[in-house]
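Example for tutorial group B:
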């Protein structure tokens, strides 16, 4: 049997290049070859073959890979997603496409979590022409968050805290040519969250984020900061349940504590949770090696399945 070959597309900023080198080395220890820098952005398709240049500039036939590790949040475009979907049917992808696509959408994820008994903030969805219903939600809740279902980094989230704010917002929303409105009840929480990393069902690590200044969002891109945080067993267990429901092999589960209902709720599940950056590692976030080990295990297992 020829040597197994695993393809990788991993972000290179924030220490991603160092992580990639470690994964490549660990796979080599297991006798598995790797090809890196497989950015599907530059790929094209010839009949049943996706042809993609690797970092060395060589053309790789993606279908000949035994597994593909796709882990680059910042650069994922619709074209890449489209090829990822096709490839996943032929080559085991990590994360698997179906789960990844699910978690790219906040409504689809929250809906599924709820139906599996995983607590989330209360949410509502209605057709774009149903603005009356949106006003009715507002009357019931007093405060809500309008969320683009495919956003990240807190971008586009709008807190609506009065009927007037909603009325002011409506013309903008109508202009945006949306299919629907997705809103969540505003959760009364302490402006900190938990980001819990789960790989293959196992707890890997956790950190907290605290919103900056007067912002109510904990995202770093919204001015939030990271701090060391030891999660309660209940938080870990909730993250594991959420990850299992989504089916993600690698998941970063965002959790906050709802002070009014006195329970932890899952805000979202991330399909490409970043490894700790070199700076964060210095500050004590020490889960990278554990995570790398588990990811390598998955790639070993999945590539063996394909190679059979
Ligand atoms: N329903 C809510 N109530 C209160 N705060 C929220 C709610 N939803 C989100 N937030 C805050 O906004 C941040 C971003 O929301 P999130 O759903 O994770 O979207 P994104 O993908 O942009 O990170 C969260 O980390 C949290 O601090
Ligand atoms: Mg988030």
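The residue assignment follows.
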């Amino acid at each position: 049997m020829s040597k197994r070959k695993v393809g990788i597309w991993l972000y290179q900023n924030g220490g991603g290049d160092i992580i990639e080198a470690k994964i490549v080395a660990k796979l080599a220890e297991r006798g598995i070859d790797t090809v890196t820098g497989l950015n599907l952005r530059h790929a094209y398709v010839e009949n049943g073959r996706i042809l993609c240049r690797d970092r060395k500039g060589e053309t790789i036939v993606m279908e000949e890979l035994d597994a593909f590790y796709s882990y680059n949040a910042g650069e994922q475009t619709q074209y890449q997603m489209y090829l990822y979907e096709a490839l996943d049917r032929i080559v085991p992808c990590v994360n698997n496409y179906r789960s990844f696509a699910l978690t790219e959408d906040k409504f689809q994820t929250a809906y599924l979590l709820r139906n599996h008994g995983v607590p989330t903030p209360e949410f509502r969805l209605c057709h774009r022409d149903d603005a009356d219903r949106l006003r009715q939600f507002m009357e019931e809740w007093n405060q809500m968050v309008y969320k683009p279902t495919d956003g990240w980094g807190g971008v586009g989230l709008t807190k609506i805290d009065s009927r007037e704010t909603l009325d002011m917002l409506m013309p903008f929303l109508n202009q945006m040519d949306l299919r629907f409105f997705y809103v969540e009840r505003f959760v009364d929480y302490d402006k900190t969250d938990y980001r819990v990393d789960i790989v293959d069902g196992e707890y890997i690590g956790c950190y907290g984020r605290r919103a900056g200044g007067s912002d109510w969002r904990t995202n770093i891109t919204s001015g939030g900061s990271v701090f060391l945080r030891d999660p309660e067993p209940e938080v870990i267990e909730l993250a594991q349940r959420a990850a299992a429901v989504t089916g993600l092999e690698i998941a970063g589960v965002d959790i906050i504590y709802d002070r009014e209902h006195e329970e932890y709720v899952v805000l979202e599940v991330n399909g490409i949770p970043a490894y700790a950056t070199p700076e964060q590692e210095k500050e004590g976030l020490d889960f990278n090696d554990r995570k790398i080990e588990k990811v390598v295990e998955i790639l070993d297992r999945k590539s063996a399945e394909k190679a059979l």
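The mean pLDDT is 95. Compare this with the pattern of hydrophobic and polar residues in the output above.
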